[in-house]
Specification:
The complex is a heterodimer.
Chain A (H helix, E strand, L loop, with lengths): L1 H34 L9 H38 E2 L3 H6 L3 H4 L2 H12 L4 H10 L12 H25 L3 H9 L4 H29 L3 H6 L7 H11 L3 H31 L11 E2 L8 H34 L6 H7 L2 H35 L6 H5 L9 H12 L4 H25 L3 H10 L3 H12 L1 H17 L2 H6 L7 H10 L3 H25 L1
Parallel strand pairs in A: 1-2
Helix pairs in contact in A: 1-15, 1-17, 1-18, 2-7, 2-9, 2-13, 5-13, 5-24, 7-9, 8-9, 9-12, 11-12, 13-24, 14-24, 15-18, 15-21, 15-23, 17-18, 18-21, 19-20, 21-24, 23-24
Chain B lengths: L1 E5 L6 E16 L4 E9 L3 E5 L6 H9 L14 E4 L2 E2 L10 E4 L11 H11 L4 H14 L15 H13 L5 E5 L7 H18 L2 E6 L2 H7 L2 E6 L2 E6 L11
Parallel strand pairs in B: 4-9, 4-10, 7-8, 8-9
Antiparallel strand pairs in B: 1-2, 2-3, 2-5, 5-6, 10-11
Classes of the chains: A mainly alpha, B alpha/beta.
Chain lengths: 537, 247
């Protein structure tokens, strides 16, 4: 009996290692394939002129979006970390939105809310008796920047809020005792204590916006194109593979530099946040102990402005998806209509054919790497091994899809699943590795002494210990894969749709109400699966 | 200010000239309720000793204005006076009190000299003048030439000396020490306790020193207050204080 158990354990472990190796190859081969066309033919001067323009525009869009995310996220972090107010928990829970709601849905929400005859414009025109809609920024760079900035602000808020809450209070108290006022303390002490957390929050947001594809594709103005969109156009429309490869290389090298910077800043942020003061009490807004009357007034005013901006540019677009679907000519009947269509059923089936398998491959790869890292580098000092899981962050879905298309020539479902897993496994890795690190070394040593084989420790102690993080990361990767529009679009698997791709197709064929309805269903499914995983943990 | 003080051990009531007094300090925590009144004579060092969780550090934070008083039902109001002036409702930086923290609370992004000069700069002293005086106080605590260094390159003892210099440069009439030596090893603790005592004599400030270490308490104190569950259990001279008083 024991032998059979051991044999099963060895088989499972061997399968997991093989799967992980395949996923690594599924990352490396498409990347190599995406770069190979570089060595064919020559690029003209016009290409380099365009290259500077496109790279500059991409950088401008990413930087602008990050600045908006920081400008909204940091004040929101101040309030959520230091003040108690109704809706504080709700505001913090919004940090799940960029993780579980696809950008396509947000883009649709912005269209529903801020288009010429969208809810906001119609309401404002009626109230203010205007002839023309006041918000006309949507199909421009400003629209892209606003949508991306607000979509990502909860990420900045969550990271900075957690850091702010955990800032050591003694330094600020010491400054207070030395006669510094609150404004002086903020600018001379707090801002320096917070800066690693702000950088650690803003760099990934910059990268997400740098790689943004769907929002730019939907909102991009004439002449305003990003590297991602250009790679897609070159690879899928003009079939100019050399240009696509050149752009892909530039984009990936730039992203790698950002990742390198991030890997240097992240440890400073982690070590700079000690545990929370057990006496930490949040004051009500405008009721903090050391604030002057003018500061209290400023706090009230900024709270109202911030709340209005978040409601207008974040919550309204979310609500706009639902309102966009039921304000069409079919009303609420659009949901029944869309769900009874064969296109929707096929898309749902396609999603269920890919997302669970992609999530499964993600957690297998993530667990194998996390366990290897935990055993090989228990003190977390090997910076190379620690940085490797960040590499997929430097490769965009478009580049991966382009490389995979060059490899397999025609998109297939297994190619889609492996591509998604190759890019998304680091998301699972972070959670699983954190839970593995939380197992005390003494526990592992004891388990090893009492076990017949090392695999006994793995299957009887380690796996059950990080069960919760495995479930949580599975649901996270499931939701990410389900909401992914880019890879299914770039790979273009024949006679195959996913819910996200189907929503995009509806939107691009100007069936706005139907696309919002499909987007609403997709959004609900993503939130449901994401929260199921969270609930389990 | 003159106030009557009752010595629990001798049962003797005596008059003392106090530089500092705190009456009806009251704060309710989950684990302990602090209800505390005491006075400190000018130029002396009073040690508040007691077990962890007895409320020693909270008393210091209430005095410093870093903690709010809890409202009480018996109508008694907290009153803190320093050199005859009531400071109960003043902001921490306006009370004329300095504080040395347990983990030294140095600003890691500033140099040692800038740390020491921080308070002077807040008061509007010119940068060059503040830096010059910072160097003087660094010399006073035995760290001449350390001004350019970063706090994270200092040892625990050096960091605590910088913290002391940063406090003393403001020439506060009252200095609060919140277990400043607890993170140091025994020989260094002894040395630094003696240094704090000598700088107190030299600078002439009044001190309130919180510790859970009996030997440390005896080494620095002119008077010891033993605290238990937020209240005074005993107070008297160091030579009358014995370890078995802490049950």
């Amino acid at each position: 009996m024991t032998d059979r158990i051991h044999a099963a354990e060895y088989s499972a472990a061997a399968c997991a290692v093989i799967v992980s190796a395949c996923i690594c190859l599924a990352f490396l081969f498409p990347l190599a394939a995406a770069v190979l066309p570089l060595f064919s033919g020559k690029s003209g001067v016009s290409f380099y002129n365009n290259l500077f323009r496109i790279t500059g525009y991409t950088f401008k869009i990413a930087l602008g979006s990050t600045l908006i995310a920081a400008a909204v996220g940091i004040p929101a972090a101040f309030f959520t970390a230091n003040r108690s107010f109704p809706g504080r928990r709700f505001l913090l829970s919004l940090s799940a939105v960029p993780l579980c709601i696809p950008p396509l849905i947000i883009a649709l929400g912005f269209v529903g809310t801020f288009r010429m005859n969208g809810v906001i414009n119609v309401v404002l025109m009626k109230i203010l008796h205007l002839k023309n809609p006041p918000f006309t920024f949507l199909y421009s760079s400003a629209g892209v920047i606003t949508a991306q900035g607000f979509y990502n602000f909860p990420l900045v808020m969550a990271v900075v809020s957690a850091a702010w809450k955990n800032l050591p209070t003694d330094e600020r108290d010491a400054a207070r005792m030395l006669g510094a006022d609150e404004r002086h303390i903020f600018f001379t002490i707090t801002i320096h204590q917070l800066s690693p957390a702000v950088a650690a929050a803003c760099i990934p947001v910059f990268l997400y916006c740098f790689f943004s594809f769907m929002i730019v594709l939907l909102f991009g103005s004439i002449g305003g194109t990003t590297l991602e969109v250009e790679i897609y156009q070159a690879a899928r429309t003009t079939l100019d593979f050399k240009t696509a490869s050149e752009l892909a290389l530039i984009e990936t090298v730039f992203a790698l530099a950002v990742i390198f910077l991030y890997s240097k800043i992240k440890p400073a942020y982690v070590t700079g946040t000690p545990s929370a003061d057990h006496r930490y009490n949040r004051a009500k807004i405008g009721d903090a102990q050391y604030e002057s009357r003018s500061m209290k007034t400023a706090e009230y005013v900024s709270c109202i402005i911030l709340g209005t901006v978040i409601v207008l540019f974040f919550l309204s677009p979310l609500a706009g998806i639902l309102s966009g679907s039921i304000t069409g000519k079919d009303g609420a009947y659009v949901f029944i209509k869309i769900m009874s269509s064969s296109g929707f059923r096929n898309a749902l089936l396609g999603t269920l054919e890919t997302a669970p398998f992609s999530a499964l491959l993600c957690i297998i790869t993530a667990f194998v790497y996390a366990w290897t890292l935990r055993v090989r580098d228990p003190l977390g000092q090997n910076s190379l091994l620690q940085t490797l899981p960040m590499l997929p962050m430097a490769v965009s879905s478009v580049v991966m899809g382009y490389g995979m298309t060059l490899l397999v020539h025609c998109g297939t479902i297994p190619a889609l699943i492996t591509s998604q897993a190759a890019l998304a496994w680091p998301l699972a890795f972070r959670q699983i590795y954190a839970s593995l690190c939380a197992i005390p070394q003494d526990t592992l040593d004891t388990a090893e002494l009492l076990s017949d084989t090392p695999l006994d420790t793995l299957f009887r102690i380690v796996l059950p210990s990080c069960r919760e993080s495995i479930i949580s990361s599975f649901s996270f990767c499931f939701a990410v894969s389900m909401g992914d529009t880019t890879l299914p679009l770039v790979l273009s698997v024949p006679r195959f749709d996913t819910l996200a791709l189907y929503t995009y197709r509806l939107a691009s064929s100007y069936r706005f109400a139907a696309s919002c309805a499909c987007g609403t269903i997709l959004c609900i499914l993503c939130i449901l699966i994401f929260s199921l995983g969270k609930k389990e943990t | 200010m003159h106030s009557l003080h009752f010595d629990i051990l001798t049962g003797e009531e005596r008059n003392m000239t106090s530089c500092f007094s705190a009456e009806n300090l009251y704060r309710v925590w989950d684990s302990v309720t602090i209800d505390f009144s005491f006075a400190v004579e000018k130029g002396t060092m009073t040690v508040i000793a007691g077990r962890s969780g007895s409320g020693k550090s909270s008393v210091l934070r209430l005095i410093a204005g870093l903690e709010k008083f809890s409202p009480r039902t018996d109508g008694k109001k907290p009153v803190i006076t320093l050199n005859g002036n009531e400071i109960t409702d003043l902001a921490p930086g306006k009370r004329g009190i300095g504080m040395v923290f347990q983990n030294h609370a140095l600003f890691n992004h500033l140099s040692v000299a800038d740390n020491v000069a921080y308070g002077l700069r807040c008061k509007g002293v010119h940068a060059a003048e503040a830096r010059k005086r910072a160097e003087e106080y660094l010399s006073l605590v035995g760290l001449a030439g350390f001004g350019f260094r970063r706090p994270d390159t200092l040892s625990g003892g050096e960091a605590q000396r910088v913290s002391l210099a940063r406090t003393l440069i403001m020439k506060p009439p009252l200095v609060l020490f919140d277990e400043p030596l607890s993170a140091l090893d025994a020989p260094l603790r002894k040395k630094l306790a003696a240094d704090i005592r000598s700088s107190q004599k030299k600078e002439g400030f009044t001190g309130i020193f919180v510790t859970h270490d009996i030997a440390e308490a005896k080494a620095v104190a002119d008077r010891i207050i033993l605290m238990k569950a937020g209240r005074i259990q005993w107070q008297g001279k160091p030579e009358d204080f014995s370890e078995n008083m802490i049950d």
